[in-house]
Write a structure and sequence with these properties.
- InterPro entries: His_Pase_superF_clade-1 (IPR013078), His_PPase_superfam (IPR029033), PG/BPGM_mutase_AS (IPR001345), Phosphogly_mut1 (IPR005952).
- By secondary structure, the chain is α/β, with parallel strands linked by helices.
- The protein has a single domain (about 5-205), classed as Phosphoglycerate mutase-like (Rossmann fold).
- Helices cover about 40% and strands about 15% of the residues.
- It is built from eight helices and six strands; from the N terminus they run E-H-H-E-H-E-H-H-H-E-H-H-E-E.
- Strand 5 and strand 6 (about 200-205) form a beta hairpin.
- The chain starts with a strand and ends with a strand.
- About 40% of the residues are buried.
- The mean pLDDT is about 95.
Protein backbone atom coordinates (compact mmCIF):
# COMPACT_ATOMS: atom_id res chain seq x y z
CA UNK A 1 0.00 0.00 0.00
CA UNK A 2 1.68 3.16 -1.18
CA UNK A 3 -0.62 5.88 0.24
CA UNK A 4 1.79 8.51 -1.06
CA UNK A 5 0.92 12.17 -1.60
CA UNK A 6 3.44 14.43 -3.35
CA UNK A 7 2.97 18.22 -3.16
CA UNK A 8 4.95 20.58 -5.39
CA UNK A 9 4.70 24.35 -5.61
CA UNK A 10 5.05 25.49 -9.24
CA UNK A 11 8.44 26.61 -10.53
CA UNK A 12 9.40 30.28 -10.42
CA UNK A 13 6.94 32.41 -12.41
CA UNK A 14 7.63 35.65 -14.28
CA UNK A 15 5.76 37.55 -11.58
CA UNK A 16 7.63 35.81 -8.76
CA UNK A 17 10.77 37.14 -10.41
CA UNK A 18 9.33 40.67 -10.66
CA UNK A 19 8.10 40.58 -7.01
CA UNK A 20 4.46 41.06 -8.05
CA UNK A 21 1.33 39.80 -6.30
CA UNK A 22 0.10 37.13 -8.72
CA UNK A 23 -2.94 35.37 -7.25
CA UNK A 24 -5.31 34.25 -10.02
CA UNK A 25 -3.44 36.09 -12.80
CA UNK A 26 -2.30 33.49 -15.34
CA UNK A 27 1.42 34.03 -15.85
CA UNK A 28 4.19 31.94 -17.41
CA UNK A 29 7.15 30.20 -15.80
CA UNK A 30 10.60 31.74 -16.16
CA UNK A 31 13.48 29.72 -17.60
CA UNK A 32 14.49 29.05 -14.01
CA UNK A 33 10.93 27.95 -13.25
CA UNK A 34 10.95 25.40 -16.09
CA UNK A 35 14.31 24.13 -14.82
CA UNK A 36 13.00 23.85 -11.24
CA UNK A 37 9.98 21.85 -12.39
CA UNK A 38 12.12 19.49 -14.48
CA UNK A 39 14.52 19.05 -11.55
CA UNK A 40 11.57 18.20 -9.29
CA UNK A 41 10.60 15.49 -11.74
CA UNK A 42 14.12 14.07 -11.75
CA UNK A 43 14.15 13.95 -7.92
CA UNK A 44 10.86 12.04 -7.92
CA UNK A 45 12.11 9.71 -10.66
CA UNK A 46 15.21 8.99 -8.55
CA UNK A 47 12.88 7.80 -5.76
CA UNK A 48 11.26 5.41 -8.23
CA UNK A 49 7.86 7.00 -7.80
CA UNK A 50 5.06 6.26 -10.28
CA UNK A 51 1.82 8.19 -10.01
CA UNK A 52 -1.74 6.93 -10.34
CA UNK A 53 -3.33 10.35 -10.82
CA UNK A 54 -2.32 14.02 -10.78
CA UNK A 55 -4.14 17.16 -9.66
CA UNK A 56 -3.39 20.77 -10.50
CA UNK A 57 -5.04 24.20 -10.65
CA UNK A 58 -6.54 25.96 -13.66
CA UNK A 59 -3.47 28.24 -13.83
CA UNK A 60 -0.79 27.41 -16.36
CA UNK A 61 2.24 27.89 -14.08
CA UNK A 62 1.00 24.92 -12.03
CA UNK A 63 -0.13 22.92 -15.07
CA UNK A 64 3.23 23.29 -16.85
CA UNK A 65 5.06 22.31 -13.65
CA UNK A 66 2.86 19.23 -13.38
CA UNK A 67 3.56 18.26 -16.99
CA UNK A 68 7.32 18.68 -16.61
CA UNK A 69 7.22 16.32 -13.61
CA UNK A 70 5.11 13.73 -15.43
CA UNK A 71 7.42 13.91 -18.46
CA UNK A 72 10.44 13.31 -16.22
CA UNK A 73 8.95 10.21 -14.58
CA UNK A 74 7.84 8.81 -17.94
CA UNK A 75 4.11 9.36 -17.40
CA UNK A 76 3.37 12.18 -19.85
CA UNK A 77 -0.19 10.94 -20.52
CA UNK A 78 -1.25 10.38 -16.91
CA UNK A 79 -4.80 11.42 -16.03
CA UNK A 80 -4.54 14.98 -14.68
CA UNK A 81 -7.47 16.77 -13.07
CA UNK A 82 -7.52 20.57 -13.12
CA UNK A 83 -9.70 22.36 -10.60
CA UNK A 84 -10.13 25.97 -9.50
CA UNK A 85 -10.18 24.78 -5.88
CA UNK A 86 -6.38 24.42 -6.10
CA UNK A 87 -5.79 27.93 -7.46
CA UNK A 88 -3.50 30.32 -5.65
CA UNK A 89 -5.03 32.63 -3.07
CA UNK A 90 -6.84 35.53 -4.79
CA UNK A 91 -4.98 38.71 -3.87
CA UNK A 92 -7.83 40.96 -5.04
CA UNK A 93 -6.79 44.60 -5.42
CA UNK A 94 -3.14 43.67 -4.80
CA UNK A 95 -2.99 41.43 -7.91
CA UNK A 96 -0.43 42.71 -10.41
CA UNK A 97 1.11 45.19 -7.98
CA UNK A 98 4.77 45.20 -7.06
CA UNK A 99 5.06 44.37 -3.36
CA UNK A 100 7.14 47.50 -2.73
CA UNK A 101 4.52 49.67 -4.50
CA UNK A 102 1.81 48.08 -2.36
CA UNK A 103 3.80 48.96 0.77
CA UNK A 104 4.13 52.55 -0.45
CA UNK A 105 0.36 52.77 -1.01
CA UNK A 106 -0.99 51.01 2.09
CA UNK A 107 1.98 50.98 4.47
CA UNK A 108 4.40 48.20 5.34
CA UNK A 109 2.45 47.01 8.38
CA UNK A 110 -0.87 46.72 6.53
CA UNK A 111 0.65 44.81 3.60
CA UNK A 112 2.46 42.51 6.03
CA UNK A 113 -0.88 41.77 7.73
CA UNK A 114 -2.52 40.94 4.39
CA UNK A 115 0.39 38.71 3.36
CA UNK A 116 1.05 36.96 6.63
CA UNK A 117 -2.12 36.89 8.71
CA UNK A 118 -4.33 33.81 8.59
CA UNK A 119 -7.77 35.38 8.35
CA UNK A 120 -7.40 39.01 7.17
CA UNK A 121 -8.04 39.27 3.39
CA UNK A 122 -6.66 42.04 1.18
CA UNK A 123 -9.30 44.30 -0.42
CA UNK A 124 -11.38 42.25 -2.84
CA UNK A 125 -9.34 39.10 -2.19
CA UNK A 126 -9.00 35.99 -0.03
CA UNK A 127 -7.28 35.30 3.26
CA UNK A 128 -5.45 32.01 3.75
CA UNK A 129 -8.48 30.86 5.74
CA UNK A 130 -10.72 31.67 2.74
CA UNK A 131 -8.37 29.72 0.48
CA UNK A 132 -8.56 26.77 2.85
CA UNK A 133 -12.35 26.89 2.72
CA UNK A 134 -12.22 25.79 -0.93
CA UNK A 135 -9.10 23.59 -0.71
CA UNK A 136 -10.12 21.44 2.28
CA UNK A 137 -13.43 20.04 0.92
CA UNK A 138 -11.78 19.33 -2.42
CA UNK A 139 -8.90 17.50 -0.74
CA UNK A 140 -11.19 15.44 1.48
CA UNK A 141 -13.71 14.48 -1.22
CA UNK A 142 -11.64 14.30 -4.40
CA UNK A 143 -7.99 13.71 -3.51
CA UNK A 144 -7.61 11.95 -0.17
CA UNK A 145 -9.73 8.91 -1.21
CA UNK A 146 -7.16 8.11 -3.93
CA UNK A 147 -4.34 8.22 -1.38
CA UNK A 148 -6.18 6.09 1.16
CA UNK A 149 -6.89 3.48 -1.54
CA UNK A 150 -3.12 3.01 -1.69
CA UNK A 151 -2.45 5.17 -4.74
CA UNK A 152 0.40 7.60 -5.34
CA UNK A 153 -0.97 11.09 -6.01
CA UNK A 154 0.80 14.17 -7.43
CA UNK A 155 -0.43 17.68 -6.64
CA UNK A 156 1.20 20.61 -8.46
CA UNK A 157 -0.29 23.84 -7.16
CA UNK A 158 0.55 27.12 -5.41
CA UNK A 159 2.09 28.39 -2.19
CA UNK A 160 -1.16 29.15 -0.41
CA UNK A 161 -3.35 26.32 -1.73
CA UNK A 162 -0.58 23.93 -0.66
CA UNK A 163 -0.26 25.66 2.73
CA UNK A 164 -3.97 24.96 3.27
CA UNK A 165 -3.44 21.27 2.45
CA UNK A 166 -0.38 21.04 4.70
CA UNK A 167 -2.31 22.71 7.52
CA UNK A 168 -4.92 19.95 7.29
CA UNK A 169 -2.40 17.14 6.87
CA UNK A 170 -0.18 18.16 9.78
CA UNK A 171 -2.82 19.65 12.09
CA UNK A 172 -1.13 23.05 12.15
CA UNK A 173 -2.68 26.20 13.60
CA UNK A 174 -3.30 29.40 11.65
CA UNK A 175 -0.33 31.01 13.40
CA UNK A 176 1.94 28.11 12.47
CA UNK A 177 0.93 27.80 8.83
CA UNK A 178 1.50 31.46 7.90
CA UNK A 179 5.17 31.05 8.95
CA UNK A 180 5.69 28.07 6.64
CA UNK A 181 7.84 28.92 3.61
CA UNK A 182 7.36 26.78 0.51
CA UNK A 183 10.10 27.08 -2.09
CA UNK A 184 9.26 26.82 -5.77
CA UNK A 185 9.79 23.46 -7.41
CA UNK A 186 10.63 21.50 -4.24
CA UNK A 187 8.64 18.25 -3.83
CA UNK A 188 7.26 17.26 -0.43
CA UNK A 189 6.56 13.52 -0.18
CA UNK A 190 3.99 12.43 2.41
CA UNK A 191 3.20 8.83 3.24
CA UNK A 192 -0.13 8.47 5.02
CA UNK A 193 -1.42 5.94 7.52
CA UNK A 194 -4.72 4.15 6.87
CA UNK A 195 -6.48 6.66 9.16
CA UNK A 196 -5.21 9.57 6.98
CA UNK A 197 -2.61 10.79 9.49
CA UNK A 198 0.95 11.41 8.32
CA UNK A 199 3.31 8.45 8.66
CA UNK A 200 6.33 10.25 7.18
CA UNK A 201 7.30 13.45 5.39
CA UNK A 202 10.32 14.04 3.18
CA UNK A 203 11.27 17.38 1.60
CA UNK A 204 13.37 16.81 -1.55
CA UNK A 205 15.38 20.03 -1.42
Amino acid sequence: MSRTLVLVRHGQSEWNLKNLFTGWRDVELTEQGHAEAKAAGQKLKALGLKFDIAFTSVLKRAQVTCQHILDAVGQSDLETIRNVALNERDYGDLSGLNKDDARAKWGEEQVHIWRRSYDVPPPGGESLKDTGARVWPYYLHDMQPHVLRGETVLVAAHGNSLRAMIMALEGMTGEEIVKLELNTGIPIVYRLNADSTVASKEVLS
